Amino acid sequence: MKRYLRTAACAGCAFLLLSVFAHAAVYLVDQRHPLASDANAGTPDAPWKTVSRAASAAKAGDTVYVAEGVYDERVSISSSGTSGKRICFLGVPPRAAVVRGFVITGAWVRVSGFHITSETPTVGSSAYDGGFLIDGEYVEVSDNLVTNLNAAVSGKGKHVVVRHNRFSKCQISVVVGGEHWLFDGNEIHRVFQHIPDSDCDYMRLWGKNHVVRCNRFHGTKKSSDPAENEVGKAHLDILQTWATKEYHFLQDLLCEKNFCEVFSQGAMVECDLPGHVARLVFQENIYWKGGSWGLNINGAQDVTVRNNTFVAIGLFGPVLRKGSTGVVEDNLCVDIGTRQPTRWYDRQGEKVGITDAFFVDSSAGNFRLRKESPCVAAGRNGGAVGACGWPQVYYVDGSHPAADDAGPGYPGWPLRTIRAALSRATEGETVVVRGGVYRENIMPALSLSRDRRICLRSWEAETAVVSPAREVTGWRRDGQRWVASYPERPTTLHRDGRPAQFEYDSVKKLVAVKGFDPRLCLMEAFGNSKSPLLTISGADVR
Question: DSSP per residue over 181-192, as a string?
């Protein structure tokens, strides 16, 4: 909710969204407010004390803001919104409201900006009930932090979106069934064994029609040295599934554009029941530092493994075995096996050996191909083999929790700013920008990129907005007003896209407002920047 509201506000259209929600309620939960009580009306002047109180009151179209604090509760959301009027729970500022999780059985619900954790890693009736337990439909969880639990996300919901979250120190971050789950742009970090002598995985999937894309799996401490090992003897897989009983199945899975580092197997698939695991697609993923198998697919039908890169895998690359059927092609495999590491790419079912893939910088995880690589035009239809393609494409996603301007610019490990991507790209290359608001001046880099014939476009149907305004956050009460640190006097201050009255203390470097709670608004400061507001939609930059 917040991400898309901010995009519209920067484009000067906030009033449209505000009119849509004019008849919906806006509530505040703020346990630190001196008058906070669940007997209140849930207003900024008389907020509720618990998130559960808000969950019992919220109806279709309502928005609940939850202020900073530790809320010792596991929140159940059973009410439903509609396709045009979601029920939204937003933590303000992001990830400063700490709760023990959400159990969501309602439909059309969005939860964004929370920190989910607990003193004990088990938070539900089952050991692997997630910080988010989702059995509802059309649920979206985004921009959340989940730490130190047995599971971050679980459930059997349908049409669920899990986007731009960070899961850290969970034993199995994702344990889900259901249908039509989208895991997009998440960081799954540092798997940790909370239950002694039990298995650990990044994710376990069952169900139908799931998409796992643009995620970064990394950071786990797995070693023969006990001091550097946090998963015991667990068989650590990026993705695991099995079908040993009639109710086990995984069908129509798309796993693409992920970056996977430190694991035992990139995928462990075991199917004892014909047809229960079928139509799996693994494409354009990078698998690095695996202990045994790149992909270990057993008994699955109609599997496609295409244009993946496997580097430093202990035993084998991608393998379909034990009756599995499908296609394995155009994958690049480098340093497979520990005793006699081998290097090859797949072509029409055969392995073609190479002496050097000519990566840009393999030690830093940059497996892009240099132009002298034999892999640049070795694939089907003259394309490149491996995950990165040719010419280079750099991905930018400022909302991705793993975004890093010093990184390689993969879909699953993207750059944070458009400026960084434009400065790195050379003639004939492409910069792809995920939707959202980018508060930066890209004009100098954009002018240079035109001279170098660099293509700048948005991701699929998303729209990116490049704004000269800076968001003002960190608001706190100061008597009858609200103040926030800001380095210089703004020319104008906007509240939800409209000019707002403000004062500025040049000594204390504080901007101040009164008469409303700025935590519940988009507050933007404009200075003397000559940078224009730009929108990037498709290949159109305006």
Answer: EEEES-EEE---
Both 50 and 108 in a single domain? Answer: yes
Enter the pTM of the model.
0.94
Q: Is 265 domain-assigned?
A: no
- CA distances 211 to 157, 180, 252, Å, are 14, 7, 9
Q: Hey, which residues does 535 pair with through a beta bridge?
A: 465
Looking from the CA of 146 toward its CB, the CA atoms found within 13 Å total 37
- In tens digits, the chain (542 residues) has pLDDT values of 333 334 333 333 343 334 334 458 999 999 999 999 999 999 999 999 999 999 999 999 999 999 999 999 999 999 999 999 999 999 999 999 999 999 999 999 999 999 999 999 999 888 899 999 999 999 999 999 999 999 999 999 999 999 999 999 999 999 999 999 999 999 999 999 999 999 999 999 999 999 999 999 999 999 888 889 999 999 999 999 999 999 999 999 999 999 999 999 999 999 999 999 999 999 999 999 999 999 999 999 999 999 999 999 999 999 999 999 999 999 999 999 977 779 999 987 789 999 999 999 999 999 999 999 999 999 998 999 999 999 999 999 999 999 999 999 999 999 999 999 999 999 999 999 999 999 999 888 877 766 778 999 999 999 999 999 999 999 999 999 999 999 999 999 999 999 999 999 999 999 999 999 999 999 999 998 778 889 999 877 76
Of 73, 91, 116, which residue sits at a domain end? 116
Question: Considering 467, 484, 515, which residue would you say is the last residue of a domain?
Answer: 467
463 and 502 housed in the same domain:
no
Per the structure, the count of domains in the chain is 3
Is 501 within a domain? Answer: yes
Domain residues for the domain of 511 are 470-526
Residues 453, 513: one domain?
A: no
**Is there a domain that residue 450 lies in?**
yes
| Same domain for 477 and 463 | no
Q: Report if residue 40 sits inside a domain.
A: yes
DSSP 8-state secondary structure symbol assigned to residue 506: T
Backbone angles phi, psi at 252, to 5 degrees: 60, 60
- 336 touches 294 (CB < 8 A): yes
